[in-house]
Structure formats: C-alpha cells, structure tokens
Design brief:
With 134 residues, this protein is mainly beta. Helices cover 10% and strands 37% of the residues. The protein is globular.
C-alpha cells in the first residue's frame, strides 16, 4: 500500500530527537510537477521495546492525541553503521527499506528483503521509488 502518489520521487525521511523524547519525522518528496512536498509527523517509542518499535502520527499536532490514529513503525533490521534500515509494521502490510544514499548495493538490498520475507512480508507489490543521485 502506498502512502504517497505514484509520481513522487526522491523521497527522504529525516529523523530528529525532540526535547520530550519523541522523534520528529520529516518526510519530503518531489511530486510529478517537480514541486517539493513535505509531511511532518511525530514518533513515540513503544514502552518496553528498547526503542525498536515506534508509533507514528502525521496528523496535525493538535489531533495526535486521538486514539487509533498512529501507525506501527518497527525497526526490523539495522546495519551496525546506521546506513541501511528495514522498517515494517505489526500487521506486515507496510515495509520500507531506508538508506542514507540514493542507491543501495543490490546484494545488500536483496539480503534486507530476504529478512522481510523471513518475517512474513509479501513483497509482490513492493514499490521501488525513483531516487536521483545526490
């Protein structure tokens, strides 16, 4: 399932720690018209998860208190240098392979996607978003 329109490219996610212990999530992309788009959310660590599971909301700040409006964001695999991460949800419907560079080595990509398969993710409809070289 896609969270952004199919013509988006150069999608980035930037994370920063807020003073209150939550994480600011800034998602940016370029749309089909070449215009920059941005969505700001907030992630809260799930208690007892050792910060490997987060709940994320992209609702406006004043509405984030509403129950059942947060999505699971679970870190499934992370390389030791924090260059590549595999992130999914508790229902195995959403999956993201995140990298600090626009391109990832195909063998490394395949290894991370194998982890997703092993954990029960169906990769049939996996979307590879176009990323221009930096």
């Amino acid at each position: 399932m896609r969270h952004e329109p199919p013509d988006y490219r150069n999608i980035t996610a930037t994370y920063s720690l807020n003073d209150n212990g939550t994480v600011k999530v800034a998602n940016r992309a370029v749309d089909g018209e070449g215009e920059s788009q941005e969505s700001i959310g907030e992630a809260t660590p799930v208690e007892g998860s050792n910060n490997s599971k987060l709940e994320v909301s992209f609702l406006p700040e004043g509405l984030r208190w509403i129950p059942f409006t947060k999505g699971d964001y679970w870190i499934l695999r992370l390389d030791p240098d924090y260059q590549v991460a595999l992130v999914g949800d508790g229902h195995r419907k959403f999956l993201w392979l995140l990298a600090r560079t626009p391109a990832i080595d195909p063998a490394l990509r395949d290894a991370y996607l194998a982890t997703a398969r092993e954990q029960g993710y169906d990769l049939t409809d996996l979307i590879h978003t176009p990323q221009d070289a930096a």
